[in-house]
TrEMBL record:
<dbReference type="GO" id="GO:0050660">
    <property type="term" value="F:flavin adenine dinucleotide binding"/>
</dbReference>
<keyword id="KW-0285">Flavoprotein</keyword>
<comment type="similarity">
    <text>Belongs to the FAD-dependent oxidoreductase family.</text>
</comment>
<dbReference type="InterPro" id="IPR023753">
    <property type="entry name" value="FAD/NAD-binding_dom"/>
</dbReference>
<keyword id="KW-0560">Oxidoreductase</keyword>
<protein>
    <recommendedName>
        <fullName>FAD/NAD(P)-binding domain-containing protein</fullName>
    </recommendedName>
</protein>
<dbReference type="InterPro" id="IPR036188">
    <property type="entry name" value="FAD/NAD-bd_sf"/>
</dbReference>
<keyword id="KW-0274">FAD</keyword>
<feature type="domain" description="FAD/NAD(P)-binding">
    <location>
        <begin position="6"/>
        <end position="309"/>
    </location>
</feature>
<dbReference type="GO" id="GO:0005737">
    <property type="term" value="C:cytoplasm"/>
</dbReference>
<dbReference type="Pfam" id="PF07992">
    <property type="entry name" value="Pyr_redox_2"/>
</dbReference>
<dbReference type="GO" id="GO:0004174">
    <property type="term" value="F:electron-transferring-flavoprotein dehydrogenase activity"/>
</dbReference>
C-alpha cells in the first residue's frame, strides 16, 4: 500500500475555497507521480454551504433581492471535478498538535476524528459579532435563521440601530435606508417623510476609516439622503434584549437607545480556538511569517492564509493576493520534501507584499457608492457598476467551482528557475 500524505485545508470560506481550488488546479498536477506515495487533499469545514457574505447588506433587506439559493452555495459539488484525490469533510477543528502533526475534528454527527497531516493550511478566517455578516464557525443555518429573523421584523420596525462605521455598517444602513425610507428629492438632503428612524453609530470620528476624509464625508451625505442619522465618537457599552423583543443599547455616556432591530456591524474575531495559544498573538490571530505565509513555529509545511493569519488586514484583497504566495511556497516545500521529509526548498521563496494603497468599494443604497482603487477615487457610478449593482453575487458560483482561480498567478522567479 502506498503511503498517504494528507494535504489538509482547514476552512472552506473565502480563503479556504480559493486556496484549495488553486492547489488542486495548479500545484497538485506538479507533484511527483510515485507508486509508493499518494497525496490526498482534505477540505474541512463545519458548513456544507459557502455564505457569500459580501452580499449580506442587500440580503438583509429583502429575500427577493438576493434569494437564499444565491447567497448560500453548496461546497462539495465544486470538488467533484478533481476525482478521488480530494475529499470534503463536514467537521469543525477542535484541537491541533503541531508536535504530532495532527488535527482533531468534530464531525456533524458529533464523532471526533484525528487527522494526520503532511501539509496543513489554516484558512478558518474570522467571524463577525452578528451572524448576519458571516458564518460563526458552525453550519450555515445559523446565518439563515438570523436573516429570516430580520426579514420578519422589518415590516413593523420603527427604530433600527446599526453599530459600526466600516463597510458592513455603511452598506447595511444604506440598503435599509433606501428600502424603508426611499431617497431624498432632487433638492433635499434628507427624505421628507422617513418611515423608520435609522441610527448608525461609530466610535470613530469618520466613516470608513480606510478611506480619505472627503470620501467618508460623501458616504455620510449619501446616508443622510436615505434617512440615516450618523453619530460619531459614540461607543457601545452594553446591549440587551428586552421582554418585548426590542434591544436596549447603552452608550458610553449613559444614553440608552431602544430599537426594534439592532445590528452590530463592527469588528471581527479570529476563528482560532483550536490553535495552541503559543502560536497565536494577543488577539487570537495565528502568528506567521508575514512574507512567506508559513507558520514557522509549527514545523514544516504549515501555512496560514486569509483573515486568521497576522499577515492579513481582514480584507478580501489580502486573501486573494495571499493565496498565490502561499501556494508557490507550499509547492516548493512539497517538491523538496517528497523524497526526504527533512529537506528544505532551495532558491528563493515567493514573498507577500501588502498593497498599502487606498482600495475599498462601498455601495450606499441601490444607486450610489463611494470608494477608491489603488489610490484612485472612483465616481459613484463606477462603484455601482462594479459592486453596487448586484453586490457581485453573479460571480459567487466561481468561488465554489474554482473558476475564480482558473488562471495561475505567474511567479517570474519560478519561470526563471530562481524559485526552484
Amino acid at each position: 500500500m502506498p503511503e498517504t500524505r494528507n494535504v489538509v485545508f482547514l476552512g472552506a470560506s473565502y480563503a479556504g475555497l480559493s486556496a484549495s481550488h488553486y492547489f488542486l488546479r495548479h500545484v497538485y498536477p506538479h507533484l511527483p507521480i510515485d507508486p509508493n506515495i499518494k497525496y490526498r487533499v482534505l477540505i474541512i469545514d463545519p458548513s456544507t454551504k459557502w455564505y457569500a457574505r459580501h452580499a449580506s447588506p442587500r440580503a438583509i433587506v429583502r429575500p427577493d433581492l438576493i434569494p437564499m439559493d444565491k447567497i448560500f452555495l453548496d461546497i462539495e459539488p465544486g470538488y467533484k471535478q478533481y476525482g478521488d484525490k480530494v475529499q470534503f469533510v463536514q467537521a469543525k477543528a477542535t484541537s491541533w498538535d503541531e508536535k504530532t502533526r495532527t488535527v482533531v475534528v468534530e464531525k456533524a454527527n458529533g464523532e471526533a476524528e484525528t487527522i494526520q497531516y503532511w501539509a496543513l493550511v489554516l484558512a478558518t478566517g474570522t467571524r463577525t459579532f452578528s451572524p448576519l455578516f458571516s458564518l460563526q464557525g458552525t453550519d450555515h443555518t445559523d446565518v439563515e435563521s438570523a436573516l429570516k429573523a430580520v426579514h420578519s421584523k422589518l415590516a413593523t420596525a420603527k427604530n433600527i440601530t446599526i453599530v459600526g462605521g466600516g463597510p458592513a455598517g455603511v452598506e447595511t444602513a444604506g440598503e435599509l435606508g433606501e428600502f424603508l425610507n426611499g431617497a431624498a428629492s432632487w433638492f433635499a438632503s434628507t427624505p421628507a417623510h422617513p418611515k423608520v428612524k435609522i441610527t448608525l453609530i461609530t466610535s470613530a470620528s469618520k466613516l470608513l476609516p480606510e478611506l480619505r476624509q472627503s470620501i467618508s464625508d460623501q458616504a455620510e451625505t449619501y446616508l443622510k439622503r436615505v434617512g440615516v442619522d450618523v453619530r460619531f465618537n459614540t461607543k457601545l457599552y452594553h446591549s440587551e434584549t428586552t421582554s418585548d423583543g426590542k434591544t436596549k443599547a447603552q452608550l458610553h455616556d449613559g444614553e440608552e437607545l431602544v430599537s426594534d432591530i439592532f445590528i452590530p456591524a463592527m469588528g471581527n474575531q479570529p476563528l482560532s480556538s483550536y490553535v495552541p495559544e503559543h502560536l497565536k498573538d494577543a488577539k487570537g490571530y495565528v502568528v506567521q511569517n508575514n512574507k512567506t505565509l508559513r507558520v514557522d513555529a509549527a514545523g514544516p509545511r504549515v501555512y496560514a492564509v486569509g483573515d486568521v493569519g497576522t499577515y492579513s488586514s481582514d480584507g478580501i484583497m489580502d486573501i486573494m493576493s495571499g493565496v498565490p504566495i502561499m501556494e508557490s511556497n507550499l509547492k516548493r516545500d512539497l517538491l523538496a520534501a517528497h523524497a526526504d521529509p527533512e529537506a528544505k526548498a532551495k532558491g528563493n521563496d515567493r514573498l507577500f507584499e501588502k498593497n498599502e494603497k487606498e482600495t475599498q468599494l462601498v455601495p450606499v443604497g441601490r444607486s450610489k457608492g463611494v470608494g477608491a482603487i489603488f489610490g484612485w477615487r472612483l465616481p459613484s457610478f463606477f462603484v455601482w457598476l462594479i459592486k453596487g449593482r448586484d453586490f457581485m453575487i453573479g460571480k459567487a458560483p466561481d468561488k465554489v467551482t474554482g473558476k475564480e482561480v482558473e488562471k495561475e498567478s505567474v511567479w517570474k522567479e519560478e519561470k526563471l528557475g530562481m524559485g526552484a
